[in-house]
Design goal:
- The protein folds into two domains: about 1-35, no CATH class; about 45-190, 3-Layer(aba) Sandwich (Glutaredoxin), CATH 3.40.30.10.
- The strands form two sheets. The chain has a five-stranded mixed β-sheet.
- It is an alpha/beta fold and about 190 residues long.
- Strand 7 and strand 8 (about 165-170) form a beta hairpin.
- Helix content is about 40%, strand content about 25%.
- It starts with a helix and ends with a helix.
- The longest helix is centred in the middle third of the chain and has 17 residues, at about 85-100.
Amino acid sequence: MKEIVVFMIILSLFSGCEKAKDRPKQTHPATHTQASISKPISPPVFTFQDINGTKVQMRLDEKTLQISDNPKVAILLFLTSWCPSCKAQIPELQEIKKQFGQKVRIYAFLLDRPQDPKTFKFQEGIDFFLSTSYKENERFAKLAYERVHAPANMPIPLMIVLKDGKYFIHYIGATPLEILRIDIEKALGE
């Protein structure tokens, strides 16, 4: 009996050993199947509309945001109609628009639904693009906040400055005009 036990122990020691290079390479069948049938994921495309019916289309890939009217510098503003800091940012952006004209485009995205967006736009003196495509705004905001590593609770206002569709800088909270102006000048190379 003792001899059988010793024989089994010796046999198990030798039977479990083999060189890794001698073993056939194993692939997980689910991984192999998934790789062969998966399609490349196309970048999300967003279509926004303002209260005048003007549409802007944006396509977000890994490194750039392609905007249909192709601005050199773009400012994306995420705001709500009830937020005092958001409202305080609007005159600053109006001044940027006045100073830089068509060199800089401003796109604002409402993250709430004011009772009357037309009245809100008029009362706040907004003369730049203000998207009222609320579901698209929210979907786009989630991706934008994630891309700039902003907190998941989505603090507002959030401004993202893009140069040629690529990230340049972002701000969380109201930002003084002088800081905006300096960073826009840097983005424009002025």
